[in-house]
Amino acid sequence: MKIAITGKGGVGKTTLSSTLSCIFSQTYKVFAIDADPDMNLASSLGIHEPITPISKMRNLIKDRTGAEPGSSFGEVFKMNPKINDLPDSLSIKYNDNLKILVMGTVDKGGEGCVCPASVLLKALMRHMILKKDEIVVLDMEAGIEHLGRRTSESVDLMIVVVEPSLKSVETAKRIKTLATDIGVKNITAVINKASDRLEESFTQSKLNEEGINVIGCIPRDKTVIIADMEGKPLINYPESAALKSIENIAENILNFKQ
Ligand SMILES: Nc1ncnc2c1ncn2[C@@H]1O[C@H](COP(=O)(O)OP(=O)(O)OP(=O)(O)O)[C@@H](O)[C@H]1O
Ligand SMILES: [Mg+2]
């Protein structure tokens, strides 16, 4: 199953991505991919050493595409670079079942930017999403721009994280429209940071009005903030109400009927 986690800035995408990855890795092989240029998936898993994103691996990019990153317009490079070995060689091993890949970003070259780094990243993403037997969790960039780049077009499930606010519901609506346009078949929402039933049911009804189903709710939970401040993954706090909700969501995802 390939899952992309999307939503407005700060709604809890990375918290959900990292925690789901930990939970799935108790049973399955998992690749957690940081596809957000403002990378912090590894940090949410408790890894605080600096990581070089793939987009900054100049030698690798040159070796695989035949051109220097940032090479001048018109330079010839391979559009189909060899990447099969990269998920294993470039990932950080978190535990026996969980590997992390940090993609990074390429300097924006306008729509449909074609440069050696973006060609390599796109080929790698495509490869990861088509890989059999593994669960892939993509922590996406905030907002809607990435949908234009079609990074997540072949995922099995796109989860939009929504907090109790109309703005966050509006972003979810836009994500749904754009994701449907690029061919994503299954889109569902997770409500995060609800302080009480009222906030939860308000958000749920707004999402339902937009035709977006909700696959689970995560309460506002101080433990999430404590985990963040202590630099540890949420899975280390078994009493956390948010963790328990994410465990339920993981189960719902695995039972999801496409
Ligand atoms: N259920 C929750 N209860 C309390 N705080 C939460 C909860 N979920 C997330 N947070 C806090 O909200 C902040 C944003 O969370 P997170 O980084 O996961 O969001 P994000 O959507 O990935 O943000 P960005 O758009 O910057 O990538 C963090 O400080 C996190 O600790
Ligand atoms: Mg994030």
Topology:
Layout: E1 2-7, H1 13-24, E2 30-34, H2 41-44, H3 58-65, H4 86-90, E3 92-93, E4 98-102, H5 116-130, E5 135-139, H6 145-149, E6 157-162, H7 166-181, E7 187-194, H8 197-209, E8 213-219, H9 222-230, H10 241-254
Parallel strand pairs: 1-5, 1-6, 2-4, 2-5, 6-7, 7-8
Antiparallel strand pairs: 3-4
The protein binds adenosine-5'-triphosphate and magnesium ion (MG).
Mean pLDDT, to the nearest integer, reads 91
CATH level 1 name: Alpha Beta
Task: List bound small molecules.
Answer: adenosine-5'-triphosphate, magnesium ion
Outline the biggest β-sheet: 8 strands, mixed
How would you classify the helix and strand content by structural class? alpha/beta
Percent helix: 25-40%
- The low-confidence runs, each spanning 5 or more residues with pLDDT under 50, are none
| Order of adjacent strands in the largest pleated sheet | 3-4-2-5-1-6-7-8
CATH level 4 superfamily = P-loop containing nucleotide triphosphate hydrolases
Alpha carbon gap, first and last residue:
11 Å
Content of β-strand: 15-25%
How many beta-strand segments?
8
